[in-house]
Design brief:
The complex is a heterodimer of chains A (496) and B (99). By secondary structure, chain A is mainly α. Chain A is 76% helix and 1% strand. Chain B has a single domain, classed as Helix Hairpins (Orthogonal Bundle). Classes of the chains: A mainly alpha (496), B mainly alpha (99).
Chain lengths: 496, 99
């Protein structure tokens, strides 16, 4: 095999790898500090994890200022504006999740050091995912972000619900990655190479080939599990309910974003030429996900399950632009990236309020939100903003995300796009019904159990609320802000 | 080249694995079925790699083997945790929450 003999050491661009290395260094540092100081170091863990995430933003900023597109390992690992915008999004969401975790993990007497190490490891996988342009690197990044997440979901070792959440997430996740890998093996067999560019060249032209269709479908189905698209969503509500709430927020936001990022790269770089497969697939799956997610959300009585189903429906909205991927690629990527950025903050914010309220009420039922405005006006107003954003009511951020969807669909034009626009519009109205139910509870219902002591919001939760609230409002009032990042990220992803 | 035979072997193994995941109720058997699926992928990758005359298929297979080991480690840990708390590894017994 001449190929083996021709091996030369690939050149490493240390600047391009700096974010990953910083994150890895802090993850290792937490473990080492834990080994040396043991119990005494517990207090410092969330600080250390938060510092690690903020420190990782520094090389991302320098790379963004530098602005050159860096490609390593034969195009398998690319650092461009698209990947930088998403890396920053992952790290900021991760930081908010760390803020949410501080008191929850400390009060629950869970294993603090391991918790933050695993969270940083999972974030490392996500950061790598946004740079992966090769089947092997996508696979490794996916597993690096998933395996720690399985453990985080089962974090409450003694709690049967948490165990069950972990088991369901694990089995579905591993089954999905096996299906995805089988698809990848077929795609690799046809293309003879693992890089997305080569796959695009080999698969993009010529008549439809059943093996290619099967391979692409298997890969897409594998990721449909990851982003909990209907009919592959059955794990999500149970896992979200059973897992510790900060972990649920992490899975609902960061993990879903990572799955979407992988889909963006696969669909827009590798499979774009096979629009005969991807467009019908995403049309059906996005319409199903939105509708089923919303209809089941209407019946929920537990706030976490409600947010889980609302998250499934939001995932359906994010899948909409993929259905017009080939007709309006630039607009479609822009719409997905903008949706991801806004969704991250509004959903993390809603989970933060749920955490803060649960510290007092010890309950996740929607009934326990009765009269929240009387005894915790700040939290009630914050929750109103987040739910309004999720529903897409203008002053808060969500409307701009929905606007992006419609813009992508209109740019694509045609009957199918118009049909999907109608489905989106109908679902926006259905979604409003269940968000409004929570709002009515908070503003107009009597206080649950007559217990109207105020809620003490801890410093970390307050900081998480401030960040998410500011971001949600800023995106709503100044949509140009997030629109700019959306536009920047489009150009490089399509050019690459 | 015997590519077809390898692909058929891979497809059969994969189908057996999928059947096992869907039909078996024992947690450990489900994990083993997932291993079957992953090994079907490995056979495919190596066969395609040889057919194309490039090593990337074999490299991919090595990555799959390494990651599968890590995955099963976590899976067995979760099954063990469930056994400690519930004295059962039948995946149907875990229905405190219904999707």
């Amino acid at each position: 095999m001449d190929v083996l003999l021709a091996f030369t050491r690939p050149s490493l661009d240390w600047h391009a790898l700096a974010p990953e290395l910083t994150l890895l260094a802090f993850g290792t540092l937490i473990t080492i500090v834990d080994i040396i100081w043991d119990e005494r170091s517990k207090q410092a863990m969330p600080t250390l994890a938060g510092m690690g995430l903020l420190a990782t933003l520094v090389p991302i900023l320098t790379l963004a200022v530098d602005g050159t597109e860096r490609s390593m390992f034969g195009g398998a690992y690319v650092v461009d504006d698209f990947s930088l915008v998403l890396k920053a999004l992952f790290l900021i969401s991760g930081y908010v999740v760390v803020l949410m975790s501080v008191d929850y993990i400390r009060d629950g007497d869970y294993y603090e050091n391991e918790y933050y190490t695993l969270m940083l490891t999972s974030l490392l996988g996500m950061v790598m995912m946004s740079s992966s342009r090769d089947l092997i690197s996508v696979f490794v990044a996916l597993e690096l972000l998933s395996i720690p997440a399985y453990m985080l979901a089962a974090w409450r070792k003694g709690g049967p619900r948490s165990n069950e959440a972990g088991l369901k997430y694990y089995l579905m996740g591993v089954f999905a990655s096996a299906v995805m890998l089988y698809g990848m093996s077929l795609v690799y067999g046809l293309a003879g190479a693992t890089s997305f560019d080569a796959i695009a060249q080999e698969l993009g032209s010529g008549p439809s080939n059943p093996v290619a269709v099967l391979g692409i479908l298997f890969v897409l189905i594998g990721f449909a599990f990851k982003v909990s698209a209907v009919p592959f969503h059955t794990w999500a509500p149970d896992t979200y309910e059973g897992a510790p709430t900060p972990v649920t927020a992490f899975l609902a936001v960061a993990s879903k974003t990572a799955g979407m990022v992988a889909l963006i790269q696969l669909v827009f770089v590798a499979f774009l030429g096979r629009e005969d497969v991807i467009q019908p697939f995403f049309w059906v799956i996005s319409a199903l996900t939105m509708t089923v997610g919303n209809l089941i959300a209407l019946r929920q009585t537990n706030i976490v399950r409600l947010l889980a189903y609302s998250g499934i429906a939001q995932g359906g909205f994010m899948l909409v632009p993929f259905a017009v991927a080939a007709d309006a690629p630039a607009r479609a990527i822009e719409a997905v990236v903008i949706y991801l950025a806004i969704y991250a903050f509004m959903n993390l914010g809603a989970f933060t309020v749920v955490l803060a309220v649960a510290r007092k009420t010890r309950s996740g039922e929607i009934d326990s939100y009765g009269g929240l405005f009387r005894y915790a006006p700040g939290l009630a107003v914050a929750m109103t903003v987040f739910l309004a954003a999720l529903a897409g009511i203008p002053p808060a951020g969500g409307w701009f995300a929905k606007f992006g969807l419609f813009r992508a669909l209109l740019d694509a034009g045609g009957g199918w796009a118009a049909g999907l626009a109608v489905v989106v519009a109908v679902n926006t109205v259905i979604a409003f019904a269940y968000y409004a139910r929570v709002l009515t509870q908070m503003w107009f219902q009597p206080v649950a159990d007559g217990d109207d002591r105020p809620i003490v919001v801890t410093g970390a939760l307050g900081a998480a609320l401030t960040v998410t609230l500011l971001a949600t409002m800023a995106f709503g009032v100044l949509p140009g802000l997030v629109g700019h990042f959306g536009e920047v990220s489009v150009l490089s992803a399509l050019g690459g | 080249m015997l590519l077809n035979q390898f692909l058929i072997l891979g497809a059969v193994l994969f189908a057996i694995g999928v059947y096992g995941v869907l039909a078996r109720r024992n947690g450990v058997m489900v994990l083993m079925s997932i291993e079957l699926m992953l090994n079907a992928v490995n056979i495919n990758l190596v066969a395609f790699g040889v057919q194309h005359g490039v090593v990337s298929g074999q490299v991919f297979a090595v990555f799959v083997i390494a990651v599968a080991a890590a995955e099963v480690g976590v899976g067995l840990a979760i099954v063990l945790l469930l056994y400690r708390n519930r004295r059962s590894i039948n995946v149907e017994d875990f229905d405190l929450m219904r999707g």
